[in-house]
Specification:
The chain has 479 residues and is mostly helical. It has helices spanning 27-43, 62-71, 94-121, 127-156, 164-185, 188-212, 214-223, 228-252, 259-281, 288-326, 328-355, 367-378, 416-427, 447-455, 457-460, 466-476, and strands spanning 49-53, 56-60, 79-81, 85-87. The protein is flat, with a radius of gyration of 35 Å. The chain starts with 26 loop residues before the first helix and ends with a helix.
Length: 479
């Protein structure tokens, strides 16, 4: 037997085993995941990371800070977060609270990076998605910690302390996350990255105004009848909303869905920016720089809202265009069905006309013919009429997909050229993998395959020839 891994052609005998797709290994993704785990754990022991203690900043390792917190002098570690987590700084001021939160967030993100990274190493098929999750936690943890260190030093120290270790790790994670998003989403990832940068700029501007214009903020809310306790709560909520805004924007960086939900988020951001403009307009002493920052903040949210509307409009236009391209398939199929029906009807009429006996009287010169006709009719009468072949126009004798064990009803509808195209695209995957579409099982239940093909058609439309796409759509609507 002559077996080959190339698409079946005349003169070759190809079995399903020889053309089965190789199992995905995704070695590169798994190696990168192991590297991230090593970086995350190693960063805990680097002695150049800044740790905020007692309203001061010193350079030490995160591991030493954790040891000091849980095994150090109890007289020094007197503050508690949520009543049980020891801290070096008091949690009552808003800056102290978020300093402690970012510290424990970094430790938690390191744990998540290790867990998801190890899962990625031992996961082959889902390695790309798992690496995205690992990179997200890696980046968020170090980015928030580095950002908080810089903000704390900016507001409470005479100089700006830049944690280059955390900044470098966060920058590396952000670049890797963007590359992975581009591999998954292609051009859509660029728009998502722009939206993330705008969300980050918005959040930093709000935190800057809260720190530099706290008096105007407090007095403005007090003039509206808001109590001091509620003012403190509102400040904490605003900082929390800004942090959540950045995290959601980061998650959206690697996803397609969520554009409609983004509209609501950007609307909330516009309201926050507008509130700062209102407070500046009603302040007894206006700060011109902060007034410009407030206008810029609201403008950024407005730009994000407009870009999201454009993104939704483009997505709907593409979907409508794809639907318009697919509709003529049914119109093309119907004439062929009518032609087959007409052929079948003609065959039945001819057979019936030949089988009816003559009921008239004797005709001169026809006696012998009548006897011959009765003999010809009586011989084939007991035999059942042969059933018409389901697809007589399809030549499948040279293709081993059509044996008794692996007969595939869809492939049986394809011509030789279309079979070769389908094999190259979805079985051998010569033109690249399609991670969102399940593997096609010859002779098996492929309902999920056809459903996913048309869900993600926008990504792979340029690979599929029109004739093959028509056959796939015709078969899918009958499932």
């Amino acid at each position: 037997m002559n077996t080959t891994t190339l698409p079946a052609t005349e003169g070759t005998n190809t079995t399903p085993e020889t053309i089965a797709p190789k199992k995905k290994k995704n070695i590169a993704y798994r190696i990168i995941a192991a590297f991230l785990v090593a970086l995350a754990v190693g960063a805990l022991f680097v002695p150049f990371t800044y740790v905020i203690t007692y309203n001061s900043i010193k350079s030490t390792s995160l591991y030493e800070a954790v040891i000091a917190l849980f095994t150090g002098d109890a007289s020094q570690v007197i503050y508690k977060l949520f009543g049980f987590l020891p801290t070096f700084v008091p949690v009552e001021p808003i800056q102290g609270l978020y300093t402690v939160i970012t510290f424990y967030l970094l430790l938690l993100c390191v744990v998540f990076t290790v867990i998801f990274g190890i899962v990625t190493v031992f996961c082959s098929k889902k390695a790309p998605a798992m690496l995205l999750t690992t990179t997200f936690f890696f980046t968020i943890g170090f980015a928030f910690y580095a950002l908080n260190t810089t903000i704390f030093s900016f507001f409470h120290a005479s100089t700006i302390a830049l944690d280059f270790v955390c900044i470098g790790l966060a920058g590396f994670g952000a670049i890797l996350y963007f590359v992975l998003a581009c591999i998954k989403l292609k051009k859509t990832a660029i728009m998502n990255a722009v939206q993330f940068i705008l969300s980050l700029a918005f959040s930093l501007a709000v935190i800057y105004m809260l720190g530099k214009d706290k008096l105007t903020f407090d007095l403005g809310l007090a003039d509206l009848g808001v109590s001091l306790d509620w003012i403190r709560i509102i400040e904490k909520i605003l900082v929390g909303v800004c942090a959540l805004n950045v995290m959601i924007a980061g998650i959206r960086g690697a996803t397609k869905k969520g554009a409609v939900a983004d509209l609501f988020r950007y609307f909330i951001m516009m309201l926050i920016g507008g509130s700062f403009i209102y407070l500046q307009l009603n302040a007894s002493v206006r700060n011109d720089v902060l007034f410009i920052v407030a206008i810029a903040t609201a403008s950024v949210a407005l730009i994000q809202f407009a870009l999201s509307c454009v993104q939704i409009g483009i997505a709907r236009a593409i979907k409508k265009k794809l639907t318009t391209k697919i509709i003529p398939v049914e119109e093309y199929v119907e004439p062929a069905q009518e032609t087959d029906s007409a052929k079948e009807e003609t065959f039945v009429q001819e057979e019936f006309a030949e089988a009816v006996a003559y009921d008239g009287g004797p005709v001169e010169g026809v006696e012998v013919a009548e006897v011959v006709e009765e003999e010809e009719v009586s011989v084939p009468a007991p035999a059942p009429a042969p059933a018409p072949a389901p697809m007589p126009a399809v030549e499948t004798a040279d293709y081993d997909y059509y044996n008794s064990k692996s007969f595939d009803p869809f492939i049986a509808t394809l011509s030789t050229e279309e079979r070769n195209q389908f094999t190259e695209l979805f079985i051998l995957k010569y033109k690249g993998t399609m991670p969102e579409i399940p593997d096609y099982e010859v002779g098996g239940n492929n309902k999920d395959f056809f459903r996913k093909v048309f869900i993600y058609l926008g990504q792979y439309r340029d690979r599929i020839p029109d004739g093959l796409l028509s056959k796939m759509y015709q078969f899918a609507v009958k499932l």
